Sequence to fold (122 residues):
Amino acid sequence: MVRLQPDPFLNELTNMFERTTEKGSVWVTLKHSSDKSKVKRNKMKTAGEKIEFKCLIRATDGKKTISTMVGPKDHQRFQSSYATILKARMTALKKRERKDKRKVADSDKKQDQKKQPTKPSN
Fold:
């Protein structure tokens, strides 16, 4: 696994998406992390020191894995760049079919009428 700075990570993520355009997938995971071992965190906690948590982001295409750590100060900028990349690369998703509200209401009424039991005749 390769740990990159946020900007090179975004560039490499873009390259991963381009390599898997025809065939393949890219998995991205985000995790809350302090980047310190549990022993160090416990020592800092008992000493009363503040532990700064970061976001660990990993991406893999099955062959190559990359990761980065983003702190709270850089998170907003990173998130907007990341969202731009995702929006540009999600071209294979199908758009949801939207039905006209009036048509949906009419079809619901017809289905309700069919479901109502008929009264038996004597």
Observations:
- Residues 7 and 112 are 56 Å apart (CA to CA).
- The two ends are 78 Å apart (CA to CA).
